[in-house]
Task: structure prediction
Amino acid sequence: MYNDKVMDHFLNPRNAGEIKDADGIGEVGNAKCGDIMRMYVKVENDVIIDVKFRTFGCGSAIAASSISTEMLIGKTIDEALEITNKDVVDELGGLPVVKVHCSVLAEQAFKVAIYDYAKKNNKTYAGLEGFNPDDLDDAHDH
Result:
């Protein structure tokens, strides 16, 4: 059901943990399916220098969180905002259709963290135009 890369990121998650002095924190979740993700970003000169995550959820949610952190570190904010849940799935080498919502959660978590950073620092980014964490729906609902 899961490919080797998904299993590797589930069993050996990268960048798990918290950043105590994070520049932005994003938490998203779906109580119905039980997946909750929190991402922490550290930013210097508009470049994401560190990302950590805490995920309560299934193996796919943990794998999607883990690979997302690897995809984000070293990217500028603008580059990071271009990453989509499809990119996360592609980077993992695919997810079962019923688990694609986990990649959506990962995308939402890091975008909320970047939104939090932008708000705290009075910054605007084209990739956040019209983005409001309060508007996130349960598109990842089962």
Remarks:
- The radius of gyration is 14 Å.
